[in-house]
């Protein structure tokens, strides 16, 4: 077999377009995932909801009652638009939280723990297929593949980043948080100026690992037809049948992108290293 370099040069513009799409999906997904993961990680760390039989029974009972109510009211609610029903449920939840404000933190913490459990316990391919094919049927809203890919990567990386943030915050000595309280600082200033910088330095290696994993996971969005790098490679091979050259080039491009991420994070880790 003769290695055909010309097939690579001919496919290069399409491969670069796919690479740009991959980077865009990864960047936007990680940006949203960092926000979700940061908030959920802080809530889970500092709002303690013990995982015991009593709390588990309350959650199961609430879900069961809600499911039965929706089941028996299905006939009456069939004519109600999905958006109106969701708005009513959100309003009812907001009313309950306003009436019992002490449950706001616990409710968010429970939701965060359930979210992390569900997302980490299911494959990303199943998640993107559900969001792209099943979710429009539930809420009567059609979304394009690019949006579905970003949203999937956002919630997937958010669940893992939440655990990274939790581990980083728990690794910080409790004395720093207590010192901030003794100085009379509010919680957000303690996190921003005392605990946060120390935890962030310790999270850099694992966050870099998550960035690389998310970039490679973007190749799985080929199942919904997103024109990222892997999809472009597949379409090019379907036209020129040069699998060795194209897949080899795709692998090298992925290696270059992940290598650049690893190099940047190494530099950041070195610059922020605690002496």
Account of the protein in words:
It is a single chain. The chain is mostly helical and 275 residues long. The protein has a single domain (5-46, 104-271), classed as MetI-like (MetI-like fold). It contains eleven helices and no strands. The chain has helices spanning 5-46, 53-72, 74-77, 82-99, 104-120, 124-139, 145-171, 174-182, 187-217, 229-240, 243-271. α5 (104-120) crosses α7. The radius of gyration is 23 Å and the shape is flat. 23% of the residues are buried.
How do the SSEs run, as a string of H and E?
Answer: HHHHHHHHHHH
CATH topology: MetI-like fold
Low-confidence segments, given as residue ranges, are none
Q: What is the mean pLDDT?
A: 85
Assign a percent range to the helix content.
over 70%
Can you count the beta strands? 0
| Structural domain tally | 1
End-to-end separation in angstroms reads: 55 Å
CA-based gyration radius: 23 Å
Helix/strand/pairing category:
mainly alpha
CATH architecture annotation: Orthogonal Bundle
CATH superfamily: MetI-like
Number of helices: 11
Shape summary: flat
Largest sheet: none
Strand content: under 5%
CATH uppermost class: Mainly Alpha
From the structure above, extract its key features.
single chain; about 280 residues; mainly alpha; 11 helices
Layout of helices and strands, plus pairs?
Elements: H1 5-46, H2 53-72, H3 74-77, H4 82-99, H5 104-120, H6 124-139, H7 145-171, H8 174-182, H9 187-217, H10 229-240, H11 243-271
Helix pairs in contact: 1-5, 1-7, 1-10, 1-11, 5-7, 6-7, 7-9, 8-9, 9-11, 10-11
